Amino acid sequence: MHSRIPTRRLAASGIVGVAALAALAPAASAMDATGHPSTTQAVVQAEAKPAAQLTVKSYTTYLKQQKTPEAKKTLDAFSKLPAGKQVRFVKYLQNRDIYKALMDQAKGNLGRKLKVVDPYNQDIKFVTEVTAKTPKGKSTKQVSFTVTETIFDIPVTSETFNLRYHVFKGKVTGTVTANSEIKNVNAAIRIHKGKVARSGHTGVATASTVWKAVPRVKSFGKGVDKVQEVTADTRTWKAKLANR
Q: What's the whole-model pTM score?
């Protein structure tokens, strides 16, 4: 079995929950959300003096400058939207409340997949997906937890956390490994990866990380930090993405 743990979201028009199936596959990135190293002088200057706001023109330019498959795919989908939807799309990207509302909690059993779609409004959806499996023999366990924001069914931000651990004689044993992955085509923010904290004692494997969203435009307002965590034992898992 698997289940959702209710989470309060800051939806402008109410909260609706809908269950579905399948899964996405966010790509890993060791760099920031723009595809460039986060420590360069250009990034520091851009963060110190962000543009006033994001526009359809500046967003299209941003996507063309990125060299990632997701940016190319987004550019193609965004270009096909009617002009009115393009304007709404860009306004949504720089709405801080929407990114803050991107959070969830879930729990379930190993060997089962979970996908839940929560509409934020008629245009925006939050998609939560978990894959919990035994990839090698019976001793290795792996839980992958992803929360994605889509606008007009176009993925904008996907934050993924992967936990891998071993079970021996009915107990969690050995070294716990974990990593985080980001796919972000929201030009209003850069999302920086934090260090992964992990532990594997008292029969439970736990790991977490912190995502730091830094505004690229003044219209977004202040930055947002999110904590993503996965905890698992020999049979079950729990996962959450929450604002810090």
A: 0.80
